[in-house]
Amino acid sequence: MEAELEEEDGSFTNISLADDRPTVDRGSAVLHTKQDNEDFTMNCDMDDMENQVEMEEKTRLINQVLELQHTLEDLSARVDAVKEENLKLKSENQVLGQYIENLMSASSVFQTTDNKSKRK
Questions:
Q1: Where does the record place Acidic residues bias (predicted)?
Q2: What is the reported pTM?
């Protein structure tokens, strides 16, 4: 049986195993057999799929945040426009109110009854 030994520094050493009983006496070296490599490949595929799902979710969330930011900017601009319109209308109402008061005071129809009683 053939196996591959991965050292702590990341290097690999190919070794042959007699009677399928490997013995490794090095520090924290890891022994990989062909089955381990298949499991590792499957784990890598699953990790890649999980990473892809995570990336898609992150992308979706980022797009959603950006869309909400644009919506907030639009709403903020609309609020500013409405505030400006409100101030303009208040000013116009004041001018019209003053104009109406001036017309009423200039018209004899809206004079107080004291003036009418003096005429008689």
A1: 1-10
A2: 0.45
Coil, strand or helix at 116: helix
CB 36 within 8 A of CB 12: no
- Short-list 34, 39, 15, CA closest to 25: 15
CA atoms of 77 and 100, how far apart (whole Å):
35
Q: What is the pLDDT of residues 85-100, one digit of tens each?
A: 999 999 999 999 999 9
Q: What are phi and psi of 62, to 5 degrees?
A: -65, -45
Assess contact for 13 and 4: CB atoms under 8 A: yes
64: helix, strand or coil? helix
The CA-atom distances, in angstroms, between 35 and each of 1, 16, 93 are 11, 15, 86
Given a contact cutoff of 8 angstroms between Cβ atoms, the answer to whether 9 and 32 are in contact is: no
